[in-house]
Write a structure and sequence with these properties.
Strand content: 5-15%
CATH class: Mainly Alpha
Structural class: mainly alpha
Number of domains: 1
CATH topology: Arc Repressor Mutant, subunit A
CATH superfamily: Winged helix-like DNA-binding domain superfamily/Winged helix DNA-binding domain
Largest sheet: 2 strands, antiparallel
Order of helices and strands: HHHHEEHH
Oligomer: single chain
Strand order of the largest sheet: 1-2
Number of strands: 2
CATH architecture: Orthogonal Bundle
Low-confidence stretches: 126-132
Shape: globular
Length: 132
């Protein structure tokens, strides 16, 4: 019963995300972009920086394939890049993080809520009620 409820909530949140943020894309592109966004979100607090090369190695894709999808998230300002030293310390790479915008806050709240079984914004409403 609990697993079914969690699945239903997760589905509801994913549908909202896909239909609002990636509404003008094809289904396959929306799926790739939400997957890439979620992957960056989950990995961004690791000790190792999230880079296109790291994602490509994890997913078994070329850097070019990851970069094409990443560019769409960068164009929408959902993800930002920061120039950092590469692993060898001689060159540079771009560390990827979720950009802090109203749109990305909605996405990350929905991802967090889907994992906890809560509706996005519920905690915010509870905090407002407690403050009043």
């Amino acid at each position: 019963m609990q697993a079914e409820l969690s699945r239903q909530r997760l589905r509801m949140f994913i549908e909202r995300i896909v239909n609002k943020v990636f509404a003008k894309e094809t289904g396959a592109l929306r799926m790739q972009q939400i997957g890439l966004f979620t992957l960056i979100y989950v990995l961004q607090d690791d000790d190792e920086p999230v880079t296109a090369s790291r994602i490509a190695a994890m997913m078994g894709q070329s850097n070019g394939q990851v970069h094409r999808q990443l560019q769409k998230l960068l164009d929408r300002k959902l993800v930002k890049r920061e120039r950092v030293r590469n692993k060898q310390g001689r060159g540079h790479a771009y560390k990827l993080t979720i950009n802090d915008t109203a749109e990305t806050r909605k996405l990350t709240r929905a991802i967090d809520a889907s994992g906890s079984g809560r509706r996005p914004g519920k905690a915010k409403r509870a905090r407002r009620s407690a403050d009043e």
